[in-house]
Amino acid sequence: EKLKTDHIDFYLLHALNRSRFEEKVKKFHLVERMLEAKKAGKIRFLGFSFHDSLDVFEEILNYTDQWDFCQIQYNYINLDHQAGMKGLKMAADRGLGVVVMEPLLGGKLANLSSHVAECLPEGKMAVESAFSFLWDQPEVSLLLSGMSTMEQVQENLRLADLAAVGMLSREDREALLKTKEVFDRMALVNCTACRYCMPCPMGVDIPDNFSIWNKLGMFGNKDAIRQQWTARFPDAEKAIHCVRCGKCEAVCPQHLPIRDSLAKLQTELDNL
Description:
- It is built from twelve helices and five strands.
- The chain is of the alpha/beta class.
C-alpha cells in the first residue's frame, strides 16, 4: 500500500549474516511467510542480500530450494571475501540469479593510484576493467553500480552495451590478478564507505577517517595527506573522539575492527 502497487517484483531479505538469519529469518519464519506472499502474487521473486562468510552463505542457500536470486559483494579485489567467487558459482549452480553489489568497491576501483592503475589490462580504464571482470563471468546476472552524476550514468550505459560473457582475454585476466596483488598490499582498511556505521554517537566521521588513512597506504604522498588531515579535516570528526562503544562494528557489513583501526590511524596520521 505504501508503495502504491499490488506486487513487488524482487523482494530481498536484506543484509543477511549468521545472527540476522538465526534471529530474524528463522526465528520469525520469514522465508515461509514470503513464500505465502509469493503464492498470493504479492512477490514475484524471492532473494536475499548477504554479508558474512562463505559457510554461512552456503547454509542460507541450503535452507530452501525456493530462492530465486541473491545479492553478493564481488569484484576483482574481493575474490575470496564473504561469498566471493566460490559463493557466486555455488548460487549459479543452484539456478539463482546473482546480483553483484560493490563492483567498484565503494568507488575505490574507479580511482586507482597510478602505480595500481598501470597494472590494468592494456587499453582499458579503471571502471571498464572492473565491470568487464564481472560481465565476463556467466554466473553474474546484474551489477549494482552507484552513480552520482549524469556523466557516470552515460558512461555506465556505454560500457554496458559492450558487456558479453567471455569478453576478457587470458592476458586481461592475468593483468587484473596483478592489479589485485598491488592493491591488496596498499589498502590499509577494506572500508567501502557504505556509511552503515553512521552517524557515530560521538560525531566521528568513520568512513572519511578511513579514506584519508587509505590514501596514506595507496598514494604515499605524506605532505598532501598531512595537509588534508591537519588543515581540512574537522577536528570534531577525527578518530580521537571514539569512545569504543562498538555501535559501528555491530552494523558494519565488512565486519571491520573499526575501533582498533580508528585508534591506529589517529596515531599514524598525527605523526606524519
